[in-house]
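Incident log, structure service

09:12 report received: a user says their structure output differs between two submissions of the same chain.
09:20 pulled the input from the user's history:
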Amino acid sequence: MLEHLNFNFSFYDWLLIFMVTALGTLSAYLKDPQLKAVTATIPIPCGFAYIAVGLPMGAANAISGFMCLLYVHIVRVLHYKVKIPIVPSIIAGLAFFVALGTFLMPRIPDSEPVFIGVCIFDLIVGIVLFQTQDYKAGVRYKTPLPVYIKAPAIAGVVGGLMLIKRLMGGFCTSFPMMNSIVSYESRYSLGDQCRQLPLFLIAGPFMFVEMHFIETRLGWNHWIVLLCGYVLFAAIYWPLNQELKRRNERAEKSYRSRK
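09:34 re-ran on a clean worker, output below:
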């Protein structure tokens, strides 16, 4: 019964909960909204979910990266445009992710051409958005709650989200556990979170492809595969993040000069 309800967490599940809780707590105490958004896009939770799930990188992983982009925009639109409170907006975004993921999971062909095609799609979307989106500095804010209250609260949320891990299969690796936490902590600056996701869509596909072929062709240990993926991701993500920061700063200076 416990196995069916997904309460039977493995060591890697608990490790994933710990890592996401630690990152989520860090994001709560960062004032810089872009740094908050960075904690939602660095692939530490994604990588540990990959270890916990034990499945090779495939099309589901690449598709779920794009679904994370849809998630953050759904939350932003619902909260800012429709004026729905942040928590119901996050729940609606998560419900969309789960519904779409469970619908697509049995329908995605398990083939390398589909996987590569989705990775190319993610890359193109990421580049287009990165080059065309608006840039501006967000609202600086950190939680007023003490860490001994905030950290257990985040751990409880993450533990609840983990209950659907097995339901999501390969989609779990990019399931918006961190994004949901950061959405709440960045509720005064959701635009920064939306501007950060294209960076993941640019760097993520290279990481996915590298990890897929190292695992399927060389049969290396999952931890070594993950480390290789992290190195490549960081090499692409870091300069992009620096450029995003410069664009935000230029936009802020331009805004101030017009006032």
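09:41 both user submissions now match this output. Likely a transient worker issue. Closing.
09:42 reviewer note: Residues 1-6 have pLDDT under 50 and may be disordered. DSSP finds twelve helices and no strands in the chain.
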